[in-house]
Write a structure and sequence with these properties.
Layout (H helix, E strand, L loop, with lengths): L1 E4 L4 H12 L4 E5 L8 H4 L3 E4 L5 H8 L4 E4 L8 H21 L5 E4 L13 H14 L5 E6 L2 E2 L6 H10 L3 E4 L5 E2 L2 E2 H11 L8 E5 L5 E2 H11 L6 E4 L1 H11 L10 H8 L9 H6 L6 H7 L2
Parallel strand pairs: 1-2, 1-4, 2-3, 4-5, 5-6, 6-11, 7-10, 8-13
Antiparallel strand pairs: 9-12
Length: 296
């Protein structure tokens, strides 16, 4: 049995689907069984109510599990929220996994997280600490650091596509020369499913990206070409975008542009520097152009 946290989220849905496609039994941690939706149950998942911030609920969830896949994270909030949900939540889950003698802990971090960037924004700091706690948990582990995750059903790509379709010009932050390496969500799911019992992956941290690393300028050109759009692009100074984020991040809901996100974008290229995941897992990966076609 594999316990999956964050199973109702965007990435979680693709990870659970990959696990079930490989005929692996899944127990999904949900905060409210009634609101979890029918999808997880339709895939044959066992649902257990719990919350990573409530240790008592995790003991029951982890009991009898062979592996844990941990996907829970937040992108916006105060520093204490990052601490409570991400750092303390991970520690609570590790404690429950150790008590239940779980044999594998597969954890999702993020590309760009490092000792050098941990102080940049609370998100990076929390992810860095989560990695350290997983590494020292005395449970065989695998850590993934994915780049931008693309899919038709969620994440940032539908927002990009909508922006390209509805605006008269496409705004590109700064000079658009920094690079990204988007990976298809189903490929991420396949990595997680393989990691559950692949001995060669044990105790390692892997960077995940798709086959194509492109600048933001190249990305927008490809997106509009695949969708048959001819609207021009305009480069918007980062300072202007920062002023915009100062206003929009105070709005309710999941805001796509925040000052912290701008800091992460300014930090440098978001591309894989270690290609060992490709060698160890040997998975066929969806090209960027095909990713864009699939979302058209």
């Amino acid at each position: 049995m594999i316990l999956v946290t964050g199973a109702t989220g965007f990435v979680g849905g693709h990870v659970v689907h990959a696990l079930r496609a490989d005929d692996r039994p899944v127990r999904a941690l949900v905060r409210d069984r009634r609101k979890a939706g029918e999808r997880l149950q339709a895939w044959g998942c066992e649902l257990v109510e719990g919350d990573v911030t409530k240790p008592d609920t995790l003991r029951r969830a982890a009991e009898g599990c062979d592996a844990v896949v941990h996907l829970v994270a937040i992108r916006q909030g105060r520093s204490e929220q990052f601490q409570r949900v991400m750092v303390d939540g991970t520690r609570n889950l590790i404690a429950a996994a150790r008590e239940a003698a779980v044999g594998r802990f597969v954890h999702m971090s993020a590309l760009g997280v490092s000792e050098e960037t941990k102080g940049l924004v609370p998100y990076f700091g929390a992810k860095w600490q989560m990695e350290r706690d997983v590494e020292t948990a005395e449970i065989p582990h695998v850590i993934f650091r994915p780049s931008f995750i693309f899919a038709k059903d969620g994440g940032v790509l539908p927002t990009f596509a909508k922006l390209a379709r509805l605006t008269p010009v496409t705004p590109i932050i700064g000079g658009g020369r920094q690079r990204i390496q988007p990976i298809w969500a189903d490929d991420v799911g396949a990595y997680f499913s393989r990691a559950v019992d692949l001995d060669a992956a044990t105790g390692r941290t892997f960077e995940l990206g798709g086959p194509d690393a492109v600048t933001w300028n190249e990305f927008w050109e490809r997106l509009k070409r695949v969708r048959g759009m001819r609207r021009p692009s305009v480069h918007v100074p980062t300072a202007v975008m920062r002023m915009n984020a100062l206003v929009t991040e105070r709005l309710p809901g999941n805001i796509p542009l925040t000052r912290d996100l701008l800091k992460m974008l300014e930090a440098g290229d978001n591309v894989v520097t270690d290609t060992s995941a490709v060698d160890v897992f040997g998975l066929p990966l969806v090209s960027l152009d095909e990713q864009l076609r699939r979302t058209a």
